[in-house]
Structure formats: structure tokens, C-alpha cells
């Protein structure tokens, strides 16, 4: 893992005599040095947040307003969720077809996978089909 303990400016201050620092700062430009320090602090903050999100270290972020119960900062967009569901459904259908060719019961095959995942992919699509059928029976479909 990377460490942001030493910024470029901290390395300069470590190796340049204190009496020379104002000259170096003037040569680089005070606004550039200030901007660099701000960017370095922000990079440290983002890196720390990234580490915590990948380690699932939610407890240490209790004071952070960006905390999300599952450890991610933003939920997936609906289009991504639908794409994931469609891909999982396609995978399950392919496995079911292969199982049929090999004489394996497809229900038995589905039991090998996490039920929440199977229900998420197949159950959601079935509920969408039910809604579409229900709306076709009502006046909603004729709008």
C-alpha cells in the first residue's frame, strides 16, 4: 500500500535549510506551493476513504457524513442493476441448459448458488413480467 506521509513539500523542508525555504517557495510561487499542499491533504483524505471502503472498515468512519450501511458511498444506478440482473439471469439460463444436456436437474443446479442471488435475478424479472401483465389487463396500458 502507498503511503502519503511524505509530500513533495515535506521532502523539500527536510532537505533544504530553513533559511533557504522562503527562496524556494518564492522560486516555485507561493500560490503553487499552497495549492500543492491543499491537493496533497485532499489526496490523503481520498486515499484514506478508499482504504476504509475496501477494508470494510465502516466503524472508524462513524463521524463521516458519507457513511453508507453497506460500505459503499453511492448506490448503483438502476441501469447497472438491471444489467447485472440480466447477466445473472443469462448465466443461470446457460447453466440450466447445460445441466439439461448432461441430465442434471436444473432445480438441483440452482440450489448450488446463493438463493439471494438467484431470487434477485429471477424473482425481480418475474415480478416485472407480472406487473406488465397486470397493467395490460387494466386501462393503464392504453394510455
Automatic annotation (TrEMBL):
InterPro entries: CCDC24. Pfam families: CCDC24. This is Coiled-coil domain containing 24. It comes from Labrus bergylta.
Amino acid at each position: 500500500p502507498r503511503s502519503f506521509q511524505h509530500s513533495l513539500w515535506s521532502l523539500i523542508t527536510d532537505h533544504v535549510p530553513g533559511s533557504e525555504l522562503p527562496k524556494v517557495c518564492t522560486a516555485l510561487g507561493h500560490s503553487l506551493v499552497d495549492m500543492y499542499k491543499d491537493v496533497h491533504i485532499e489526496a490523503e483524505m481520498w486515499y484514506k476513504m478508499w482504504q476504509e471502503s475496501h477494508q470494510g472498515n465502516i466503524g472508524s468512519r462513524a463521524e463521516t457524513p458519507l457513511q453508507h450501511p453497506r460500505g459503499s458511498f453511492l448506490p448503483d444506478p438502476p441501469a447497472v442493476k438491471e444489467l447485472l440482473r440480466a447477466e445473472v439471469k443469462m448465466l443461470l439460463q446457460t447453466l440450466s441448459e447445460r445441466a439439461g444436456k448432461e441430465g442434471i436437474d436444473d432445480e438441483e443446479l440452482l440450489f448450488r448458488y446463493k438463493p439471494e442471488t438467484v431470487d434477485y435475478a429471477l424473482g425481480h424479472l418475474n415480478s416485472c413480467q407480472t406487473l406488465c401483465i397486470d397493467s395490460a389487463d387494466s386501462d393503464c396500458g392504453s394510455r
